[in-house]
Model the fold of this input.
Amino acid sequence: MPDKPRVPNSMPEELRPPDWHRGAVGGLWDEIGRLQHDFLVGQGLQPEHYLLDIGCGSLRGGVHFIAYLEPGHYYGVDKNLELLEAGRRIELPRYQLVERAPILVEMEDFDFAALGRAFEYALAHSVFTHLPLNSIIRCVMNLERVLVPGGRFYATFFENPKGKSHLGPILHPRVDGPDLATYFDHDPYHYDVDTFRWICSSTSLRMDYIGEWGHPRSQRMLVFTKT
Done:
């Protein structure tokens, strides 16, 4: 299963491989991190913008965003404190980014308002792929409250192109292994695009389908814009 953190809790930290946190998010750490950065810059992200990186994990994309953005303009949240701490202790010094003062917060319930900041950009890479629908709704609704007018929230997902009546698995190609099966009712999840339009129907968000964006594991891209 790609990108779902698998932290070796049973192994003492001193016995873990030095880069265990990179493998814990499914591999292709640097490739996908660079892809995230290059994509958002191509979508208009500028150094003076504030970025909220949801599910930032071990700072796979974070190290590139932190280097690019002005100090203190990167906010990364994740429910996995061990991955966050690995990113803070290992990756920030490795990339000489400590003095750029990123804000890294453990967050379980998408309470983005607690950050006390409005954002021009937000990203959730490989988050919706592991969330049931009600949790996605909570994420989107809470994100709406912290986006500035015109702000954009980019989210990846596994697409169900067959429509809501399809209840079986769907296979997605990967460059680094066999096809991945996703499911209607358990992790890893797939969704049809109209479901995200329905989520936005009672909000100030407009959802647009970007689709293919070069992801090596066939995750598609959506953008939610606050009108």
